[in-house]
Amino acid sequence: MVFPTSIDQLTHAVLNASGADVEPRKRVIIESLIRHLHGLVSEVNLTLDELLAACRFLVDAGKISTGGRDEFVLIANILGVEVLVDMISHGPESQTAILGPMYRSEAPRLPTGANISRVRAPGEVQVFVEGYVTDVAGLPVNGATLEVWQASTNGLYDNEDPEQPDMNLRGLFETDAKGYYAFRCLRPTPYPIPDDGPGGRLLRILHRHPMRPAHIHFIVSAPARQPVISQLYDSDCKYIDNDSIFAVKPSLVLDFEPDNGTHGTDRYVRCDWRLPDANPQA
Ligand code: MBD
Ligand code: FE
């Protein structure tokens, strides 16, 4: 046994304590975590009180993460970490954006053109969304699945709001042989990320606001293709260049045009999706 007597020796002792057969990717990640955590603690001369406060913060995040709430994803969003992961995984040219904590699988499957809003929302403005899903060569993808979800005009998703019916403002659509999809929804409105928990505490410590620009979430997927996790943004929203979680990408900012009676909605937006081929190694 070696007794570390300096910060450097301590960090190395912790790194060297791992066994020989650690799964390689886990070794890389956890060793980097150890090095960065030790670096951070040394850099700021962290005190025991501060360490315990940080532990309590994480305990509180765990305690509030029930019933579909995921405070850890939210904290990752507030710290820009999920955007960073998206940038690294997909590069700046992709149509992807972050998933966020409000995704629910098993949204109801709806016919083309259906409205995902199951109740009238105060002040609602209806939008017709349509477009084509293609592969990277521009050929239509038949039978692609589009999962969409959005917050209501009160700024709450169904899972945050006991007043909304279950799965309100969520739907699953399929493209036809031309790759075409369409649905109706609410014109999205700006929305505060949940700030009644540790994530909100973090925002207040940093004197930051909780607002996200108006957005609609998408997951577009098809067999043998990489799924595209994304969000659409309304160019007219006042938070478009002031997103509390830094997730806006210019290519995803669209104009919600007046519908002019074509679809019986107030607004119209066209959005096409390109699905990359599946990763050869996947
Ligand atoms: C949201 O609605 C959202 O889309 C993200 C990314 C983070 C918090 C709340
Ligand atoms: Fe959202």
Element-by-element helix/strand order: HHHHHEEEEEHEEEEEEE
What is the overall number of helices? Answer: 6
Number of strands: 12
Radius of gyration, in Å, reads 22 Å
Regions with little confidence, pLDDT below 50 for 5+ residues: none
Globular, elongated, flat, extended or rod-shaped: what is the shape?
globular
Average pLDDT metric: 95
How widely separated are the two ends?
Answer: 43 Å
Report the portion of residues in β strands. 15-25%
Helix content estimate = 25-40%
Largest sheet: 5 strands, mixed
Would you kindly provide a brief summary of this structure?
The protein has 282 residues and is of the alpha/beta class. The chain contains 6 helices and 12 strands.
Explain what the structure shows:
The protein has 282 residues and is α/β, with parallel strands linked by helices. It has six helices and twelve strands. The strands form three sheets. Strands 1, 4, 10, 11 and 12 form a five-stranded mixed sheet that branches. A five-stranded mixed sheet has the order 3-2-7-8-9, with no helix packed on it. A hairpin with an 8-residue loop joins strand 10 and strand 11 (267-270). Helix 1 runs antiparallel to helix 2 and helix 4 runs parallel beside helix 6 (198-205). The longest helix is centred in the first third of the chain and has 21 residues, at 24-44. The two termini are 43 Å apart. The structure holds 3-methylcatechol and fe (iii) ion. 3-methylcatechol is lined by residues 74, 77, 98, 100-102, 193, 212, 245, 247.
